[in-house]
Amino acid sequence: MRTLRPPLCVATAAALTVATFVPAASAGTPDVQPQAQVGVSSLEGDLLAALNSFRGARGLRPFRSSARLHAAAMRHSGEMARYGYFDHASPSGAAFWRRIALYYPMRAFRRWSVGENLEYGQPAVGALEVLQDWLASPAHRANVVSTHWRDAGIGAVSVTNGSGVFGGLPTTIVTLDVGFRLR
């Protein structure tokens, strides 16, 4: 887990420990042809339900579904699928919290923070498998059980030929963006 302290916000992220790190391009946008991407809305809904069930069983408040965080998560899962990388940074190398802030803005809030969990696997990856993977990793688990986060958005994308780190294989990529804002 890493903590970044941009002006007036705190952002935390967890990186999947079994994933291969591939640095994002340092300049410009990679020259990659887009491929077919399919949103996996049933996985998104099932995963939010599983997260909230897990949290509820431990006396934690459920995450509120956030359309803004969902949009940020979908963008990131889509970019990772399109450009064949797996990282919290955007293809340009920008920090994850900058991307999330475009959708879940910090303006007009006294306190603002965001976090992110990532996962990728075979197309049939299920919500409970994703949750179990995150719970097995201390950094991911910290985001799942945090009493700080209030809002959540999940973006899941499946591709038939995952480029780059996905080795040309059918892949499902999941991003969980979590956040907190206080006026």
Notes on the structure:
The protein is built from 5 helices and 7 strands. It has 183 residues and is of the alpha/beta class. Strands 1, 2, 3, 4, 5, 6 and 7 form a 7-stranded mixed β-sheet that branches. α4 (127-136) crosses α5 (138-145). The longest helix is centred in the N-terminal third of the chain and has 17 residues, at 41-57. The radius of gyration is 15 Å and the shape is globular.
Task: Give me some keywords for this one.
alpha/beta; 5 helices; single chain; disordered N terminus; 183 residues; 7-stranded mixed sheet; 7 strands
List strands and helices in order, with pairings.
Blueprint: E1 2-4, E2 10-13, E3 37-39, H1 41-57, E4 64-65, H2 67-83, H3 96-103, E5 111-121, H4 127-136, H5 138-145, E6 151-159, E7 171-182
Parallel strand pairs: 2-5, 4-6
Antiparallel strand pairs: 1-2, 3-6, 5-7, 6-7
Beta fraction: 15-25%
Poorly predicted runs are 1-35
Give me the number of helical elements: 5
The average pLDDT value, as a whole number, equals 82
User: What global shape is seen?
Assistant: globular
Percent range for helical residues?
Answer: 25-40%
Largest sheet: 7 strands, mixed
What separation lies between the terminal Cα atoms?
26 Å
Rg, alpha carbons: 15 Å
SSE ordering: EEEHEHHEHHEE
Please state the structural category. alpha/beta
Count of beta strands: 7
